[in-house]
Amino acid sequence: MNVTIRGQHMEVTPAIYDHVIEQLERIKRHFDHPILVSVVLSVEKLIQQAEAIVHVDGRDLHSRVTHLDLYKAIDEMAHALDRQILRIKEKKS
Fold first, then answer.
1. N- to C-terminal Cα separation, the chain
2. pLDDT average, residue stretch 52-61
3. 58-68 confidence digits (pLDDT tens)
4. How far apart, in whole angstroms, are the C-alpha atoms of residue 1 and residue 4?
């Protein structure tokens, strides 16, 4: 899994980086081939935002979540991507 993580108006600390990677592991289990994931973490005033684009099987899956807690936003973003992937897999079968 190729992951790009960048921060807008914030620094991506090692703890945040590790948390993003840990949460994205749940989508990695659905694929046996490499996937490309771009994550943008941003903060504006008190609102934390986690946004991800997953490039897989010729599709782009997108998730954007805002929350007061960045870690919760990352968790919800990964959960939303997981649901999208499961929906696509159900349609294929």
1. 24
2. 90
3. 889 999 999 99
4. 10
| Residue that the structure tokens 């949460």 belong to | 23
The residue extents of the domains of the chain are: 2-92
Q: Burial of 70 by CB count in 10 Å (0-12 exposed, 13-18 middle, 19+ buried)? A: buried
pTM: 0.92
- Residue 44's DSSP bridge partners are 47
Q: Is the pLDDT of residue 18 over 90?
A: yes
CATH assignment of 2-92, given 1.10.760.10, 3.40.50.300, 1.10.150.320, 3.30.160.100?
Answer: 3.30.160.100
47: which strand partners?
44
Q: 72's torsion region: left (phi>0), alpha (psi -120 to 50) or beta?
A: alpha
